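User: For a benchmark we're assembling, each entry needs the component sequences followed by a predicted structure for the full assembly. Here are entry 17's components. Please fill in the structure.
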Amino acid sequence: MTNVAVRAEGLVKNYGDIEAVRRVDLTIEAGEVFGFLGPNGAGKSTTVRMLTTLLTITAGSAQVAGLDVATEPDAVRHRIGVALQEAGLDPRQTGRELLVLQGRLFGQTPQEAAARAEELLELVELQDAADRRIKGYSGGMKRRLDLASALVNRPEVLFLDEPTTGLDPASRLTIWDEVRRINERGTTVFLTTQYLEEADALCDRLAIIDGGLIVREGTPEHLKAELRARAGIPNPTLDDVFLDATGRTRSRVAGDVQEVA
Amino acid sequence: MAQAWTLGNRALREAWRTPEALVPTLFIPLFFLVVNVGQAAKIFPGSTTAFLHGQGYGAFQLPSSLLLAASFGTAALFLVEDIEGGYFDKLRATPIPRSAIVLGRLVAEFAKGLLISVLIVVLGLIFGISIASGPLGFVLLVLLTALWACVFVGFMQLIALKTRSAAATNSGGLVFFPLLFLTPNFVPRDLLTRPMEIAASVNPVTYVMEALRSLILEDLVWSKIAYGFGVVAVLFALMIALNVRVIQRYD
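Assistant: Structure for entry 17:
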């Protein structure tokens, strides 16, 4: 595998006259947990969908796992795992059936798919619910199963689009632990989130996108230090970095929640 | 095709686990069969009506019920559910040909079409209808019905992929009703008024219906059978081509 897991150069996505993503440049090293932050509608999911071959690219280029997203989409799909914003699951299947089917679609034999499903059910601690229909799963269980299904093919790069949105704090911590475990096994993780404490806890580096443009990029510590030096804030948090980067302030947010939303 | 088969199995499992979606597919066509026969059987007694070839009016109406049963397009509604729930994108992110996603559903629809048409024909046999073309005719009857189910669900899937809306897909299915009524539904084509005869002659459903009817009432009348299978083959090829094109351009 190349040392660069994801590279995007001048990535653009337009919907008619609307520029959802405007000339995004990204370089993510193999083995990193990379956080992609931004308010709603900033372009996070659109960027993820382009990098995962689900959306066509209007302009610019992107390589994932060393492969061009636009010209080698099938090869890219072999090497990535994707868990999108809505846990994309079939409620009528059992957890085990879903994982086995996913394995079969990645070319595994029935025996390989069954064995891999068992491993993943153990990894996300869903063995007891494996043979129950997914429609009866809690939100946290669905997220963990979605995560497991993204790992069926042992991906080099795992894309997680807001994996903890809507989860209770305990389920969120469980997902965090799993992301760390997955990363420790060598998988690069591209994580979009709206939760700044999540980015602070998990990410080696992060980028903040706003209005389709990258407005900050670096390690959490670097970004906080830069804000401390520039604005004189004694102990800035990632919240402060985010508010500064997106042109919002604590007092304005307190008075007008709509600005952040 | 291996992936289409795998996804077809999943779609069949989905249908088996949603019996409430299958029940109307059987109940409504049988309801129409009973009502239509009840309303017109006295007008067309089997003993004196030449176009019935000695059978009751139920035998004449059975093809309408078969076509109606094959035109519910529930597979397309399940496809919309996949789109709305995000599972469709999960499938698109796997390294399978995207055409396998729609072809898989057609595989399942074909199997469901066979099962439902066998059930309806067997019920017809129990109530005195006979298949004049014999065992081979029976096979051709259920095969043609199941292929029509694939054509219709292919059409519904196009609406599903284009609109990504359950409401729009459901409404799109209603297009079948005008097509069904612009056929020789109650009497043979030569007994229709001239405007209706012209409308029926340009309606492809007419040829499928006449092929099914000939298998029940006449014998192996290959000219009519060939028209029916020919229409279905052309429409099936068209639907597959359009489905593949639309899903490959899905963004």
